Amino acid sequence: MSLFRTLLLSLCAAAAVATPALARPKDEVVRFASLDRPRDQDRAYIQKQRGQSMPLPQIENRVLPRMGGADYLGPEMRGRNLRMKFMDQGKVIWVDVDPMTGQIIGKSDD
Prior knowledge:
Residues 1-23 form the signal peptide. By secondary structure, this protein is α+β, with helices and mostly antiparallel strands. The protein is built from three helices and four strands. It has a four-stranded antiparallel beta sheet with strand order 1-2-3-4. The N and C termini lie far apart (69 Å).
């Protein structure tokens, strides 16, 4: 058997074995190879697709005006809630928001 044919058959066999492993249901959360937990952006995407979350810009439009000029540093998922990080006069402020309603449910200073 020629080297080319052996190489081609090896590549085809590897592709056939790997293909089912790459397939996943539409709603399944993508997981890190080394961690058995979903990524924040995957959880946020799934919540949005299922109607369990408002779009982030809409939530930001509700919360930012209530923060009195504090600098907005960005969002992160915290369980089922959205946690927004602000900086005001050198202090970090965390604002917990219900992603379904956009209502502030908690606020803490570090």
